[in-house]
Amino acid sequence: MMRALLALEDGRLFEGESFGAAGTSVGEICFNTSMTGYQEVLTDPSYRGQIVAMTYPLIGNYGTNATDQESAEPHVRGFVVEELSEVPSNWRAEESLDEYLKRWKIPGVQGIDTRALTRHLRTRGAMKACLSTELEPAEAVQRARDGSGVVGMDYVREVSTRDVYQWDPDDEASRPWSLQTGDDAPKLPPIRHRIVAFDYGMKRNILRSLRQRGFGVTVVPAATSAEEVLKLNPDGVFLSNGPGDPEALPYAHESVRGLMGKKPIFGICLGHQVLGFAFGGRTFKLKFGHRGANQPVKDLRSGKVAITSQNHGFAVDTESLPAEIEITHVNLNDGTVEGMRHKELPIFSVQYHPEAAPGPHDASYFFDQFAELIETAD
Asked: pLDDT over 70 for what percent of the chain?
C-alpha cells in the first residue's frame, strides 16, 4: 500500500498506509469513540471541515451501503483508523470502506496508533492536521498550521438545503426509513403536527424520527428568516444539528430570536447552541469535544442518567445564560451543559442526538416531549 502521513499542527507525526483516495487534505483532527456506525459518522454533516479518527481498532468489517447514509454524501475531510477490514462481511454491504472513500475522493490512513493519537489530543486539545500521501513531513506540518480549522468557520452554508421542501419517507425509495418492507414494515402514524425544521446540516434519521412521532416536516434553509417561517404557520420549530462554530452564525441567532414566544421550539446539537445565543448567551470551544455513542448525561430534574450519542466541539457557557433559562442536563464527564429550557416559554434543547444513528436510543423520548410541548402550548 501507498504511504500516508498524518501531521498535526504542533509537529506530531503519524505514519501509516493509505486507503481511500490519494492526495492531501487539511482539517481539524478529532476522535470518535463509537464501536459501530462509521458510515453514519462519515455522512454526518456535523463533521464538515474535520478529519475523524475512530478509536475502535477494527473499522470497515461490515462495508457500506446506501441505506445507512445520514446525508447524500460524506463530509469528513479524512479518515483515520488503526486497522482496515479490507473484505466486508455483511448481507447489506454494497461497497468496501476503501472503495467508498475512493469513490468520494476522501483520503484515509490505516496502521496509525489511534490510542497514542487520542491520548495526544486529549492532552493537547483539538488541533488542525494534514493527511497526505504526497507531502514530506515539514511541508505537511506547515499545511496543517495554515489550515482554516473550525473556530470562526460557517460550514452550515455548505451543507444546508438550498430549497424549502416537504420531507416524505416514500420519496426515498433507495433508502427506506425502515429495513422491514412489505407487510412486515411498521406503519407510520397519521400526521398530528406540522413543523418547520431548520436545516443546519440535518441527519436523515432526525427526519425519520420526527415522522415516526406524527410530525409532518417542512425543511427550510439555515438562513431562513423568522418572518418567512411564521408565514408557513407551523405548529412548532425544530433546530437541527450542524457543523462549524455556532458563534459564526448571526443570521441563525437572529431568526431563532424572532421565533421565541411565537412558536414552540426544540433544538439539538448545533440547534441547542444557536438557541443559547438567541437566549443572550455564548459558547466556548471544548478542549477535545464529545464525539461517540457512549457519553453519560444526567437529567438534573429526575436524577436519571442516559448514555447518549454526541458529536460537538463547542458547549454553551452556563454563566452567560439569563436567569429565565434552566439547565436541565449535564455531561457527567466534564459537567458541561447538555440540556436547557426556558422557564416561561415553550422552548427546550439538548446538546446530544436523540435520533442516535449511530448510538443508543436512550434519548429518543425527546421527540415525544416535543409533541407534548406543542399540544400543551395549543
From this structure: 96
